[in-house]
Structures
1.
Amino acid sequence: QVQLVESGGGMVQAGGSLRLSCAASGRTFSNHAMGWFRQAPGKEREIVVVISRNNLNTYYADSVKGRFTIARNNAKNTVYLQMNSLKPEDTAVYYCAASMGGYGGYATPQHAGDFGSWGQGTQVTVSS
């Protein structure tokens, strides 16, 4: 397992931007696909975006396509989520997650059960 710590959440007006970061401990960061999930009050946790181990493949939920961008730096054990054109419906706690081991380099697992390590979450609030 890896330990994950998110940062960068906060409050922003609709149309604004935020950048989330997730720092991972350990020497196996590049062995894991990395994802961002979110959970709004009263709703289930949902996938936002995933990036493959080799940094060459991504999956974006339809709700964030064209607005959010994921990037990872394997040398720094860090994954980032750039969020632009934020909407009130993006308000949620955002979680960074590392996949279970064993996925191929291009894999982008998309279910919460595919991920074995989770950060503590960071709140993102978008006001209208």
2.
Amino acid sequence: QVQLLESGGGLVQPGGSLRISCGVSGRTFSRCNMGWFRQTPGKERDFVSAIKWSGGSTDYADSVKGRFTISRDNAKNTVYLQMSSLKPEDTAVYYCAASFSFWGDRSRSPGYYDYWGQGTQVTVSS
């Protein structure tokens, strides 16, 4: 069993920055691929970013590329999402997810992931 807990969400002004974190306990964190998704009311959960278990590969949605950076610290069992140049349309509940499947294009799909956190709210507003 794997437990994921997001933290670091909050209110930030447009153009500002925020880093959210996801702590993972349970099975070997260093062997799981991690993803970040976001969701607004009434909409599907959208892919934001993903990182391979080794940290050697990353992927980003076009909407956040160049503004968001995903990283992980396997010694701390934590994955991060550094968000910069935030826009009001980035407002959402952000979820982290873990997968023990092979790394590939499927990492953009929610169905690829085996475990999910409860989410953290990020609000971008003046």
3.
Amino acid sequence: QVQLVESGGGLVQAGGSLRLSCAASGRPFSWYDMAWFRQAPGKEREFVAVISRSASSTYYVDSVKGRFTISRDNAKNTVYLQMNSLKPEDTAIYYCATPASITTSSVLPTTTGKYAYWGQGTQVTVSS
């Protein structure tokens, strides 16, 4: 049974930083891509960043490029999201997610439908 547990959210002023963590268990962590999504009140869940199983590839939504960095530590079964220069529009619940199966394509998955397992989410609030 795959379990994902996020941590690291909180309240921060605009321009500040936070680092989110997601601890995974239940299957070989290093075999699967990992991603972060977020959902703001009244909005659909949106893709933020994804990292390949070997960490050789990453991809970001345009709105966070240059500010957020996704990384993983396969020895610790953990994926991270370092968020710098935070803006009020980054306020959302942040979720980590992983696909049901190993990605065989060179294109990393960025849609919610490609992900089978989700954490419970961690709230990030950025004040202006």
4.
Amino acid sequence: QVQLEESEGGLVQAGGSLRLSCAASGRTFSSYAMGWFRQAPGKEREFVAAINWSGGNTYYADSVKGRFTISRDNSRRTVYLYLQMNSLKPEDMAVYYCAAKRDGLARTEIKEYAYWGQGTQVTVSS
């Protein structure tokens, strides 16, 4: 059974930091590229960050570049994906989703991702 389970998000003040994690199991996720996406109320889901299967290549949306860091741990049967978010802004507030592709190449397009978590709320207060 495929499972992508995000950690609980949270409430943070603007300028603060938060780390999200996602536990992926049920497939050989160590071979798959993974990514983070987010959706704010009334807006479409958008790309945040992506990482290839080995962690050697990462991509970021311009809006988070320099503030967010994506990483992964393939060392165990359950693969863990992380998103370290620093210098958070009110506009970062959204539901954040972990996702995985069926191959190892990182991409920014939502349609490329086959597996999705249930999402976790990140709230940033100004």
